[in-house]
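tool=predict chain=A
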Amino acid sequence: MIVVSACLAGFEVRYNGTHSLNETVRELLEQKKAVSVCPELLGGFITPREPAEIIGGDGDDVLDGAAKVVEISGRDVTELYVNGAHLTLMKAQEVGAAVVVLKEYSPSCGSAMIYNGEFKGVKAVGNGVTTALLRKNGIKVISEEELGDYLALAQIKV
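tool=predict ok
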């Protein structure tokens, strides 16, 4: 089974109430080869919500208590992000996920790049909170940008 970000499946769950539909992800869901999750909604957020970025590091640093996730207004929402990450981990373990495909750049889901914490649209190398927790627990995480290569290697037809 593959776990995918709900926004990639076309659900309007992003902070601004939009989606990031990826047709391959949609097809995987239709074929019952994937299930969708939104770590931020699982953590207790609603849609829409304020944009948030990691301040002081990346997802690993958040889990280690050395960084935090803050909304643009300054509200610390670290606990909600960590809770959502743990619930996503539980779901991935429950379905026996072979891989989790998460939306790049998100403070939850970024797998290689996130925003740098200055709310100026600048990206930095790093991972989101959910990605960090999944990887710490031995679960492979990729972005939507890597999905085609993964499916080809795993010989999964869509």
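The mean pLDDT is 97. The chain has one domain: 2-153.
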